[in-house]
Amino acid sequence: MIAGRIAVAPVLVTPLVIAMVLAVIEIGLVAYSRSVLNAAAESAVRTAAAFNGDTTIGEARFRALVSNELRSGAITDIRWYSTLDTLTMRVHSTLPLVGPLVPVTLTTDASAYHEVWP
Predict the structure, then answer these.
(1) 3-state SS class at 111
(2) What's the pLDDT at 109?
(3) Number of CB atoms found within 10 A of residue 117's CB
(4) Backbone Cα Rg of the chain
(5) Which residues pair with 92 in a beta bridge?
(6) Please, what is the Cα angle at 24 between 106 and 68, to 5 degrees?
(7) Three-class SS state of 31
(8) Which of 44, 83, 97, 100 could cysteine-pair with 62, CB 3.0–4.6 Å?
(9) DSSP for 46-88?
């Protein structure tokens, strides 16, 4: 009787362990993608601000940094906002997922002072 109960336990526990492992991988991918997007957006905004607010140079810098780290369709929208002294970049992206979960979208903002030299 005891041998029958021991054989059933791995059958019940294995799906739970697999689900937990996939969840940990998902959380790791989301954290990594968020870190990459934040660093790339900050670098792009600083580059654009250094080149007199030229957003095409900043966006090229952003895409160069992200292209090696994330899949090509991850970035869905890039918007630039400029005030008198601040340049802001807002990036919307969809994150890669391992399991059959709902796709996660992430919005990242980065700002830098836009200095105009005489």
Answers:
(1) strand
(2) 92
(3) 4
(4) 22
(5) 77, 107
(6) 50
(7) helix
(8) 44
(9) HHHHHTTT-HHHHHHHHHHHHHTTS-TT-EEEEEEEE-SSEEE
Q: What are 76-87's pLDDT values in tens digits? A: 888 988 888 889
Output the CA angle 55-57-63, nearest 5 degrees: 100
State the DSSP code for 15.
H
**What are the pLDDT digits (tens) for 26-69?**
888 888 888 999 999 999 999 998 888 888 999 999 999 988 88
Structure tokens at 21: 């492992």
The residues, any chain, with a CB within 8 Å of residue 45's CB and separated by 6 or more, are: 58, 87, 88, 89, 110, 111, 112
Say which amino acid occupies 66. V
> Residue 103 is encoded by which pair of tokens?
């796709």
Give dist(CA 88, CA 32) in Å, integer.
22
Tokens of 113: 């002072």
The single-letter code of the amino acid at 1 is M
Q: What is the pLDDT of residue 70?
A: 80
CB 48 within 8 A of CB 116: no
